[in-house]
Specification:
Elements: E1 4-12, E2 24-27, E3 29-33, E4 38-42, E5 54-57, E6 66-76, E7 79-89, H1 108-111, E8 115-125, H2 128-132, E9 135-141, E10 145-151, E11 164-171, E12 174-179, E13 182-188, E14 201-207, E15 211-224
Antiparallel strand pairs: 1-15, 2-5, 3-4, 4-15, 5-14, 6-11, 6-15, 7-8, 7-14, 8-9, 9-10, 11-12, 12-13
């Protein structure tokens, strides 16, 4: 029997500019809307390496015990797509609190700075080894701790003619990630790398020159069933 019920607490179709009017950009990115879905890409050359990468944060603080669902379609490779969640400053305050280290999309600013988060790279087609063997990688920060890995079933962008249903579920220390309902990875945080993370911001990250489309972002709060 499932331990929890779920209640929808946030929904965003990501189909028009007004839907991301209060989202927060870090780095140099371009957003547009194609066929009523959000398209994200870099405005800088990939030759600039990390300086060309970026994060788009949802400007809302979510509670612990959540399920994050969105639809995703790769448009152009190479590159990488990632989701951050449970992102907070290391002392528990907002990642947008005054006095924190600047963040401009460079990866080290997110895993070795003054914030904690889980981050799942679910479409990895940047480096040669990523392109010949496709995996989804779950990491925990502070630090760059690879805590779980699973096979990536999404094809190359040229063959991806549909949107894929992505879903991250965290209930307590238990984390699962599914694509189109297929479980890709499962991880129970044993606190080897610090306390279980929970609550905070979620954000989309991409690596240039990757281009992808998104729609139908939904977040559910998971409520423990009464015995």
């Amino acid at each position: 029997m499932q331990k929890y019920t779920q209640a929808l607490i946030y929904t965003n179709p990501l189909c028009q500019p007004e839907d991301i009017a209060d989202f927060i950009e870090e780095g140099s990115l371009k957003t547009s809307f194609v066929n009523k879905c959000l398209r994200i890409e870099s405005v800088r050359s990939p030759k600039e390496e990390q300086k060309a990468n970026y994060v788009l944060w949802c400007n809302r603080v979510f509670p612990h015990n959540i399920k994050i669902c969105w639809q995703f379609k790769p448009v152009q490779e190479p590159g990488l797509a990632m989701m951050f969640w449970a992102a907070k400053a290391k002392n528990g305050e907002s990642i947008f609190a005054p006095g924190l280290m600047p963040r401009t999309g460079e990866y080290q600013q997110y895993h070795h700075s003054d914030i904690n988060a889980y981050h799942l790279s679910y479409f990895r087609r940047k480096e040669p080894d990523e392109r010949i063997f496709h995996t989804c990688n779950l990491r925990k920060s502070y630090g760059l701790h690879l805590v779980s890995q699973g096979a990536d079933p999404i094809p190359e962008a040229a063959s991806a003619t549909q949107f894929y249903d992505m879903c991250i579920t965290q209930f307590g220390a238990d984390i699962t990630f599914t694509i189109n309902g297929l479980e890709v990875l499962h991880y129970v945080d044993d606190e080897t790398y610090g306390a279980v993370l929970g609550g905070g911001h979620i954000g989309f990250r991409q690596l240039a020159p990757f281009c992808a489309e998104y729609k139908n972002l939904q977040v559910y709060q998971l409520l423990e069933n009464e015995s």
